[in-house]
Amino acid sequence: MEIRISHLHKRYFSEGKTITALSDVDLVIPANRIFTLLGPSGCGKTTLLRSIVGLESPDSGEIAIGDEIVFSQEKGIFVPPEKRGLGMVFQTYAIWPHMNVFDNVAYPLQARNEPAEEIARKVEKTLRFVQLEGFEKRPATKLSGGQQQRVALARALVAEPRVILFDEPLSNLDAKLREETRKELRAFLTKLQITAVYVTHDRIEALSLSDSIAVMKEGRIVEIGTPKEIYFDSDQRFVADFIGRTNLIEGQVKASAPPCTIVETTIGEIACANKSGAAVGQKAAVSVRPEFIRVVPGDRPPERNVFRGRVESLVFVGDAYEGEVRIGDTLMVVRVEPTVRVAEGNEVSLFFEPGHCSVLSR
Amino acid sequence: MGSRRTILTPSLIAIVGFLTVCPVVMLLFGSFSSGLDAFGTFTLEKYVTSYTDPAFAHILVNTAVFTLGSAVVATFLALFLAYLNTRTNIPFKFLFRVISIIPMMIPHILFAVSWVLLLNPTNGLINLYLKQLFNIQGALFNIYTLPGMILVEGLLDLPIAYLIVAPAMAAFDVSLEESSKVCGASNLSTLRRVTLPILRPAILAAFTLVIIRSLASFAVPSVIGMPGRIYVLATHIYRIVSTGFATDYGVAAAVGMSVLAASVTLIYLYRHLTSEGEKYVTISSRGYRPTVIDLKGARIPLFGAVGVLSFILIVLPVIVLFYASLLPYSMVPSAKAFSLMSLKNWTAVIHDPISLLSLKNSLFLGVAGATLGVILSVFVSYVIVKVRTRAAGVLESLSFLSFSFPGIVIGVGFMWLFVRTPLYATIWALLIGYIATYLPYGIRPLSSAFVQIHSHLEESSRVCGGGTLYTMRRIIVPLLIPGIVSGWILMATMFVRELSISVVLSRPGTEVLAVQILRFAEDGLWGKLSALGILMIFFSTALVIMATLIGARLSKVEN
Fold first, then answer.
1. Contact (Cβ atoms closer than 8 angstroms) between residue B330 and residue B117
2. How far is CA B288 from the centre of its chain?
3. Directed axis angle between helix B233-242 and helix B249-280, to 10°?
4. What average pLDDT does the segment B218-224 reach?
5. What value, to the nearest 5°, has the Cα angle with vertex A116 and ends A113 and A120?
6. Is the pLDDT of residue B174 over 80?
7. Helix-, strand-, coil-residue percentages of chain A, each rounded to 5
8. Which long-range contacts (CB under 8 A, 24 or more apart) does B96-99 make?
9. Min CA distance, A174 vs chain B (Å)?
């Protein structure tokens, strides 16, 4: 079900200071997609999620889930969380320690007074779905972190909610388990075809799980797009920097030569192929990610987007070398394939496709 | 929601403030007032009288020796036990948990009495036995001395010292010791140069807490000290307010002020030490088990010592009381003694109207007091843990204030508060005094229960479709029940045995068990005393079992 959010504002007062958690948020979350709110801590993503669920009451604006308005300051509507028919997985899982797995999962159905045999049937089906069949009678707190996570997911799903929401559900797992659970979650959600809103500060999680991502900063949504669009095509420094490691090369837009934009930078002219609204003469930076820079020993014929530099440092990190190459006063971070024969102090040529360079004008 | 909360905190501050600050203020005013009205004519006479009393210096010395001595005994034994338990391969480690918990179940006055029954110079069982054995005149041991008091008080405060020292010792980062050994130090010099200095804050904290408790202690000084004419501050105050001819609450308040000041200072020191301790004791993040020291040949003798200690702490007092309750007068176990055994003392107690009244009063105070106290604690803990405004911080310090109040001193404060009100000499005066003084016993378990209820647990119930009441019934109350039960048990057992406030506030008609036991002790009626004492243990154990069963029925928390 689609979620429409308009002009949402929320401020907190804490220790005499006013903190703006949400500032004029306008957003449409499409139905049956995995939608991620991504941003650094304190950007307002959790407040937005909690406002959708009904655990926070915004200062102004409107939230509609499907055709139903669940919050509207103007119309004086506030539907309490228990009446919104949603499912949520909390960061701490919020597994009730005094209940076993069955009762934890059955709780939403029991709260709706469904008949016992119906409850038993649905709980069994849901536990099978999350691969926890046979765990019904176990005390919920005796499960491992990953299993508790699946109990929380089962509980959120069992009542067939209109939307399921996740508040950093993987952040309490260790690195290896997090990766497995992420894949599992992706598989579950794809199978379900349900609207999912997912909050995280982890860019890998966001990129690998989502159909679309909204990047948030200081209470505002700064960019919305598919993972690929966010990764490659953003024209904002904040987004390009936050979503992954990159080289930001300062410069000025020199010419527009469709399909490319030419930027005069500190290392020379760079041709960028991404769509950009930057006008000629405007100050801008070019973003090139280390993994898309090709490093070749020695000289190469001068060509578009080829630069010469000297290897300052080279560190072996397992699947590749991580290096720094100095071009004039600019230090570029690069990834070098282990098969390429370069060493510290060598003269090398760097090359990157225009398609991998983006102009950051905001 | 918002407006309800804003009323809740101030009204709780008012209630708790009344309970904890009022008696102190009244004590202060009372000490400066002549006559029985706290706001009467201002006078310094009470301070002059009490502090120029020629006996006062001697009492101060006694108090210092008694408190420091008890602290040395309790801390040393606690260290010994904690070290054996956490760091060595001594067998039957469950015994250490027993030692740290069970002695708290035995009321201090009965523990003191059982030592009197064993070691008093005229007919103490051990003295009688030794007399027979070696055919000597006179007693070998006399419990009615300062060393006797120190020994008994030290044993009584051992559990509390152990509960502070043992966790610190268990959390100790063993690599600190290992590196000392790598540097070439022996086990003993590692203990002396590394282990003990690092544990110093915990050891000092235990030491300070025992000083605070023995300063407030009334059972041992009254049952053991007074017959030997050894007075400490607590019994000195008692003598001023209870001996018929020279009762002067003004002088009692004047003495009480300095006891209170000492106690509050020590509590601050204790707080400082425990926060210092957190800085010091490093909990190793990599779940290393401490290396266990092999006791080898000393394993069995050391275990023997622990066994004897737990026998002395737990079994002996009950056996001695039970034995004494069956005999007409004190005698060594023998064929003659067994032939003389009867239930006479028990029937005498059951037919004694004052004993029955005291039993009834104490049970009422235990049940009603603990119930009211726990209800108040629920609200106070809720505000302390969940509301967390600045006002909530004020409430927190207010509610833990009474932790530092010596019972007899605060009893005198309440005396001043109630003396001109209709509450004076009623059971409600006792009830209010009890709740005020023992409020921390209810708040501790309940605030940890509230801490356990993470806000997500509530919120997730709301999202799952549970309304406010449904969430309350299915999530919050069941999770609170264990805290409520342990708070209730702690308060009820403290109230059933309460002595030091009661000796001041209890009047004819409002006798309570411990006071009645003290009267029996003063009159030397050991048989009746023992019977009533056993009844006291029986009823407080019954309350504990009842509360546990009800709690288990109300919540099915799996641990």
1. yes
2. 35
3. 150
4. 94
5. 120
6. no
7. 25, 40, 35
8. B96/B162, B96/B166, B96/B306, B98/B310, B98/B314, B99/B158, B99/B159, B99/B162, B99/B306, B99/B309, B99/B310, B99/B313, B99/B314
9. 15
Q: Which residues of A touch B461 (CB under 8 A)?
A: 96, 107, 111
B489, B551 contact by CB (below 8 A)? no
Query: How would you list the strands of the sheet with A283-288, edge to edge?
Result: A268-272, A260-265, A247-257, A283-288, A357-360
Give mean pLDDT, residues A141-163: 88
H or E stretch at A315:
strand A306-316
CA distance B366 to B495: 5
Does A149 touch chain B if contact means CB atoms closer than 8 Å?
A: no
pLDDT of residue B252: 87
Is residue B479's pLDDT more than 90?
Answer: no
Q: Does A87 touch chain B (CB under 8 A)?
A: yes
- B351: exposed, middle or buried (Cβ count in 10 Å: 0-12, 13-18, 19+): exposed
Sign of CA dihedral B450, B456, B459, B465: negative
| ipTM surpasses cut 0.90 | no
Helices B249-280, B200-216: inter-axial angle, 10-degree rounding? 170
**Best mutation site among B452, B454, B460, B462 for testing chain A: the one with the most A CBs within 10 Å?**
B460
Tell how strand A347-351 and strand A306-316 pair up. antiparallel
Of the residues A98, A110, A153, the best mutation for testing chain B's interface (the one with the most B CB atoms within 10 Å of its CB) is A98
Query: Smallest Cβ distance to A98: which of B460, B464, B478?
Result: B478
Tokens representing A137 are 């009678």
Check if the beta carbon of residue A286 is closer than 8 Å to that of residue A249. yes
Query: Which letter does DSSP use for residue A216 in this model?
Result: E
Structure tokens at B37: 């009205």
pLDDT in tens, A94-129: 888 888 899 999 999 998 889 999 999 999 999 998
Q: Given an 8 Å threshold on Cβ–Cβ distance, is A82 in contact with B466?
A: yes
Task: Give contacts of A92 with chain B, Cβ < 8 Å.
Answer: 454, 456
Residue B389 CB neighbour total at 10 angstroms: 12
Let me know: does B87 contact B290? Beta carbons within 8 Å.
yes
Look at residue A86 and tell me whether its pLDDT is greater than 50.
yes
Q: Is A82 on the interface with B (CB under 8 A)?
A: yes
Contact A90/B at CB under 8 A: yes
> Nearest Cα to B103, choosing from B37, B31, B153, B53?
B153
Place of tokens 């020695």: A298
Interface probe with B: pick from A96, A165, A168, most Cβ of B within 10 Å: A96
Instruction: Report whether A296 contacts A282 (CB < 8 A).
Output: no
Task: Give the pLDDT of residue B197.
Answer: 83
Which residues have C-beta within 8 Å of that of residue B417, sequence separation ≥ 6? B22, B23, B26, B38
- DSSP β-bridge partners for residue A13: A18
- Residue B558: pLDDT band with limits 50, 70, 90: very low
Q: Which chain B residues are within 8 Å of A107, Cβ to Cβ?
A: 461, 464, 466, 474
Taking the Cβ of residue A155 and every Cβ of chain B, the question of whether any pair is shorter than 8 Å is answered with yes
* Mean pLDDT (whole number) for A252-271: 85
A271, A304, A349, B59 from A353: Cα distances, Å: 8, 9, 14, 93
Q: Nearest CB to A111: which of B454, B459, B464?
A: B464
What is the SS3 assignment for B501? coil
Count of residues for chain A? 362
C-alpha A170/C-alpha A172 separation (Å) is: 6
CB spacing of B464 vs A96 below 8 angstroms: no
Nearest in space to A262 (alpha carbons), one of A238, A286, A239, A245: A286
Question: Could you give the CA distance from residue A226 to residue A212 in angstroms, rounded to a whole number?
Answer: 4
